[in-house]
Amino acid sequence: MSLSDVPTIGVEEEFLLIDPVSRLPQPVGERVVAGAKHAIGELVSGEFAQCQLEVKTPPCSTAARLRAELMRLRTAVDTAAAAEGVRICASGTVVLDDGLPPAVGSHPRYRAGLAQYRAMMDDFALSALHVHVHLPDRDIAVLVCNHLRPWLPLLVALSANSPFYHAKDTGYASWRAVIRSRFPCLGPPPYAESLTHSEEIAKMIAASEAMLDAATPFWDVRLNPRLPTLEVRAMDVTTDVDDAVAVAVLIRALVTTATTLAIAGDPGPRISAEVLRSAYWRAARDGWCGNGVDAITGHILPTAAQLENLVAHVGAALKSAGDTTVVDALLDRLTARGTGAEMQRASAQRRGTLTDVVDDLMATTARR
């Protein structure tokens, strides 16, 4: 594969909007989005909770370009946030809050979700990292989803950045993943034998009202309904922009490798949904510093060993894209200081209070 054949990638990051004095989330998303649009146009939008917003990069060919775009977008929205008296904060869950349900955005989809899921949405101010990889062949993309399913728990562990919730340590690396697990339409996609099979499953789930719209499933890897991309949605938003870039290129390599296998006729491993759910839970609890379930073999392995297996699996694709050093640097950072979950806990231990955790999150998110 030549560099010109490497698919483009795009990233969506969701941020909380935090008052730097109280350290509580503020429902000013619509105003901040309006201010940021002067600088970045439609690359910023609102989110379910009014205390959030989302940025989305244009398609990028290289890790360097992706990093530059993410920095540009973070700078633009933090500048707009400052004009409203708040700061952006990259954490999968709200660290401190007033205990009240978040104000909901005005988009009809958000209102429909509130009507359908009711009290389940009372604490749904969750911030994610979504990665898009260009893959216009939807028949092949469904089979690629099958290949990605076993690796999704590892992506949860690598991005874990939500240990605190309602001013307490949950004991989990990704509490966001736990909150999401109660929804019947979130999590890994079902194994599908074809595009038609996948669409039939989505229609049946939507008919049960467990999913809002069959054309827009919220599975952790899905065919994007509007873009010619495969979208991976399992990850917490990462505070360190370099972690976001590294996870994105690692996912691109995984999609590239899976695409080659699917084109060759390999439909992907049939992983038990129950085993996969167990692997998700273990990844959410123990994160980078613990052990996890290898969903293919069922073996319990250190998360670091699982990452080594993934890098070996996609090594050729990483090399072709020029991304090997980016992923090597991620491994070095994880070895030295862990994921966002470890960094949040280190802030709490080093500085003594959860207000200091929020301060560190805001400072790192907006670092220029």
From TrEMBL:
InterPro entries (UniProt xref): GCL_type2/YbdK_subfam, GCS2, Gln_synth/guanido_kin_cat_dom, YbdK
UniProtKB keywords: ATP-binding, Ligase, Nucleotide-binding
PANTHER family for the chain: GLUTAMATE--CYSTEINE LIGASE 2-RELATED
GO biological process, alphabetically ordered: modified amino acid biosynthetic process
Described function: ATP-dependent carboxylate-amine ligase which exhibits weak glutamate--cysteine ligase activity.
Organism placement in taxonomy: Bacteria, Bacillati, Actinomycetota, Actinomycetes, Mycobacteriales
Protein's organism: Mycolicibacterium tusciae
Pfam families assigned: GCS2
Recorded catalytic activity of this chain's protein: L-cysteine + L-glutamate + ATP = gamma-L-glutamyl-L-cysteine + ADP + phosphate + H(+)
Name listed for the protein in its UniProt record: Putative glutamate--cysteine ligase 2
Family: Belongs to the glutamate--cysteine ligase type 2 family. YbdK subfamily.
Enzyme Commission numbers on file: 6.3.2.2
Highest taxon above the source species: Bacteria
Enzyme class label: ligase
Gene3D superfamilies: 3.30.590.20
Gene Ontology MF terms: ATP binding; glutamate-cysteine ligase activity
